[in-house]
Amino acid sequence: MSALWPYWFRPWWLLLLPVLGWLLWQLWHRQKRAGRWQMILPPAFHAALLSGGSGRDSKLPWVALGVAWVLTILALLGPSWERVEQTSQKPADPLVVILELTPEMLATDVAPNRLEQARRKLFDLLQYRSDAQTAIVVYAGSAHTLVPLSDDLSTSGNLLDALKPSLMPQAGHRADLAVTKALALLEQGALGDGRILLIGSTLTEEERQGIRRALDGKATQFLMLGVGTAEGAPITREDGSFLKDEQGAFGCPIWPSRA
User: Fold this and answer.
1) Residues 214 and 149 reside in one and the same domain
2) Burial class (CB in 10 A: 0-12, 13-18, 19+), 256
3) Mean pLDDT of all residues in the chain?
4) Of 222, 210, 230, which is closest to residue 114 (Cα–Cα)?
5) Does the N terminus or the C terminus of the chain have fewer Cβ atoms within 10 A?
6) Measured distance CA(164)–CA(238) in Å, rounded
7) Cis omega (within 30 of 0) for bond into 112
8) Which residues are within 8 A (CB) of 16 and not within 5 positions of it... i.e. 6 or more apart?
9) What is the CATH number of the domain that holds 120?
10) Would you state the pLDDT for residue 53?
11) What is the pLDDT of residues 174-203, one digit of tens each?
């Protein structure tokens, strides 16, 4: 029997039924008071002097009005015999992932290189957070928003596949600029709530100080995930040559040794 009973999407319209019943009652009694002329005038004059004659006492118009009002209320209730499950609000849980996109990310101390390892970790994170909002910021000498706060997993994955250090317009290491941009994204899309995750290989002292200044007074949780080893490894450029540091060495260690 429960399957025959409809599901109401807007049940609060039922509150109008007592009001409409009271209004119909008032109209009915007003009509009866207006019909008292029938008691005063002789029956022979009813047809000539009173519109509708004896038909003024007919209850049919009031029944029709009451039925019309009830049908209107039923329509406003939104009946449905197929109950639609109300989808709960998606968990926001805003997170901005900052990805280092410097040549150091091409070091091969983790197979096949640091960038690919970071990309895989980020893919796994996006899969795990498929129903949450995630933004991606990339940086080298400048910081850029790759994906704003969104749960569009396919778009994020396609953009990550095309990332490489040569795409960055400015060389350098400015993770602090990326943190500032991440905070702006959280402020715009999540009213300042959320977390920041930095995935990279190296941090200079200038970057560390800049990050501390950017986070000063903020309640935003800041996390870091290092990719690589402390020993480092040669960095193969896209042209096949090796990248050297300021001392002429080929190895590029992970950030703890560059604190």
Assistant:
1) yes
2) exposed
3) 78
4) 230
5) N
6) 9
7) yes
8) 73
9) 3.40.50.410
10) 45
11) 999 999 999 999 999 877 789 999 999 989
